[in-house]
């Protein structure tokens, strides 16, 4: 397009004053430049006689003119766009709003103009930009007075180097926000389903038994943490399945094709634990193997090292372990310099580490290093729903091993449901193996259980019996129950009081006081 054509669109009062190389001075030589081609990307700055910028034109004939003559045009443009526009002056007073803004707010423009923004929306972002002027774009902003989410663009406007006003342009983002929220919710559902699917896959793959929410929650945690590099501390009573959960984490991680190495910290003598974990070089001490030895950390590099019974790790080794966790390097005995390792550490314990820290038996810094994520496995008492499933699972394993076709009697299942299981799943497993070995055919009953458990079968029966005798008198039920327990212990120990008090776990003083209070006759 020719410059003159562009200029013919401008009003006569508007002068073009050349102040930059690509600017045109209308006064100077309109004919000379009139036939000049203006490239599409060429910008012409329009200035008035005082040299103030009054607009700009590009080769595509888009004119932004800020003169009084164009103000009406600008107003009508701004009032016909869907976006809400508001401008405040340097004091925060609203000096312009368009129709869209007034429509959203439900207040006529004349009632908004002149009001202080501080009074309408004290937390408005536009006020912050007034204090700290910079072009700001926020795709998601909640506007209290408009009660909607908007995507907002705020522009500070300067005149002669002074901040004159701040303009804010909002686009309603409520719909986008709702859509985003929906997408987020869907993502969460998908992640949850994926987690459940991963958990079920691992349950099946590793032959894990359990359907209780508490157990499924543990598996989900294991599957989630497996995808990260975090160190994990598994806690739970003896025999709850800590090692099995460590296996689950390893198997669900991208390290599954490398080794999972288990070290039982309680089983290694203190003098050997360093060489076990870090290895040694040939000839580093008397008795050292030819060619040296790789430590468990090195062997598990790329894979996972499971440190079971971490509470039993000697203090001196705890600081060495901490260093390895911090630097990912090991120092082999008898070797100069360290070796980098990429070993994920999972630790487990049934000990009260917090108490051990207070007693200076366990290092606090190591504790924090190890339990980036902590997984607590509930005891079998806390997930009784799983007892039946586990019992049937172990029965089929031992039936197959000992070539039997035994079943579980109702009486045995009743006992299992009421038993406390201090040894948890391992105790249940041993109990079923013992029963399968002892029972020849038919159904396993409480009589097929190991002797120490048969005692508790009787105790359970006594509890039931006394509760039936004195259903409304707890004190009397407890008295009678204590009496029966002591008499049974005396019977079992042929009247030997020392043996009976030991079996009951009572001190001599308490034992004799109880004999007296409960009027237990001294048969021997
Ligand atoms: N959910 C389960 N399904 C099937 N078997 C299980 C389950 N949990 C544990 N077991 C079995 O119970 C026994 C004890 O489990 P595990 O050795 O993992 O427990 P632990 O907590 O590490 O024991 P400890 O405290 O003695 O180190 C193992 O034989 C294991 O296979």
Automatic annotation (TrEMBL):
Classification via CDD domains: AAA (cd00009), PAS (cd00130)
InterPro entries found in the cross-reference section: AAA+_ATPase, AAA_lid_NorR, Homeodomain-like_sf, HTH_Fis, P-loop_NTPase, PAS, PAS-like_dom_sf, Sigma_54_int
Keyword list, A-Z: ATP-binding, DNA-binding, Nucleotide-binding, Transcription, Transcription regulation
Database matches in SMART domains: AAA, PAS
Domain Sigma-54 factor interaction residue range list: 208-437
Positions of the PAS domain: 70-115
Signal peptide start and end residues: none
NCBIfam families assigned to the protein according to its UniProt record, in alphabetical order: sensory_box (TIGR00229)
Name of this chain's protein: Sigma 54-interacting transcriptional regulator
Organism: Fusibacter paucivorans
Source species taxonomy: Bacteria, Bacillati, Bacillota, Clostridia, Eubacteriales
């Amino acid at each position: 397009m020719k410059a003159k054509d562009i200029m013919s669109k401008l009003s006569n009062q508007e002068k073009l004053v050349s102040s930059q190389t690509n600017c045109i001075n209308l006064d100077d030589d309109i004919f000379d430049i009139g036939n000049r081609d203006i490239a599409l990307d060429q910008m012409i700055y329009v200035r008035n006689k005082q040299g103030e910028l009054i607009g700009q034109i590009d080769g595509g004939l888009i004119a932004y003119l800020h003169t009084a003559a164009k103000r009406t045009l600008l107003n009508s443009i701004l009032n016909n766009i869907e976006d809400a526009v508001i401008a405040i002056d340097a004091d925060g007073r609203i000096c312009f709003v368009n129709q869209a803004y007034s429509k959203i707010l439900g207040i006529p423009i004349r009632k908004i103009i002149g009001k202080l923004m501080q009074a309408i929306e004290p937390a408005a972002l536009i006020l912050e930009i007034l204090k700290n002027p910079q072009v700001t774009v926020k795709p998601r902003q909640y506007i209290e007075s408009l009660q909607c989410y908007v995507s907002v663009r705020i522009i500070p406007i300067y005149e002669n180097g002074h901040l004159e006003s701040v303009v804010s342009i909002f686009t309603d983002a409520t719909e986008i926000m709702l859509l985003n929220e929906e997408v987020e919710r869907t993502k969460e559902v998908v992640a949850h389903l994926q987690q459940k699917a991963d958990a079920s896959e691992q349950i099946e793959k590793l032959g894990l038994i359990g359907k209780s929410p508490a157990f499924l929650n543990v598996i989900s945690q294991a599957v989630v943490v497996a995808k990260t590099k975090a160190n994990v501390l598994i806690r739970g009573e003896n025999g709850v399945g800590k090692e099995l959960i460590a296996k689950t984490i390893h198997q669900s991680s991208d390290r599954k094709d490398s080794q999972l190495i288990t070290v039982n910290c309680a089983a290694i003598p203190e003098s050997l634990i360093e060489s076990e974990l870090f290895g040694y070089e040939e000839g580093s001490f008397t008795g050292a193997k030819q060619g040296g030895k790789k430590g468990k950390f090195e062997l598990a590099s790329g894979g996972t090292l499971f440190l079971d019974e971490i509470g039993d790790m000697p203090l001196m080794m705890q600081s060495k372990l901490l260093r390895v966790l911090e630097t990912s390097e090991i120092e082999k005995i008898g070797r100069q310099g360290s070796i980098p390792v990429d070993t994920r550490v999972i630790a487990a314990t049934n000990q009260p580490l917090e108490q051990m820290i207070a007693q200076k038996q366990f290092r606090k810094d190591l504790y924090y290093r190890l339990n980036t994520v902590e997984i607590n496995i509930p005891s079998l008492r806390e997930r009784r729903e799983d007892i039946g499933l586990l019992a049937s699972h172990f029965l089929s394993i031992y039936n197959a091993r000992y070539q039997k076709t035994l079943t579980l009697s109702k009486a045995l299942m009743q006992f299992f449901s009421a038993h406390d299981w201090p040894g948890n799943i391992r105790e249940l497993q041993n109990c079923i193996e013992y029963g399968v070995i002892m029972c020849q055919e038919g159904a396993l009953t409480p009589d097929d259980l190991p002797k120490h458990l048969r005692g508790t079968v009787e105790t359970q029966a006594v509890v039931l019996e006394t509760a039936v005798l004195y259903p409304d008198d707890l004190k009397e039920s407890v008295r009678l129950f204590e009496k029966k327990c002591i008499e049974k212990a005396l019977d079992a120990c042929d009247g030997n009081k020392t043996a009976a008090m030991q079996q009951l776990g009572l001190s001599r003083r308490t034992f004799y006081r109880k004999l007296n209070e409960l009027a237990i006759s001294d048969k021997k």
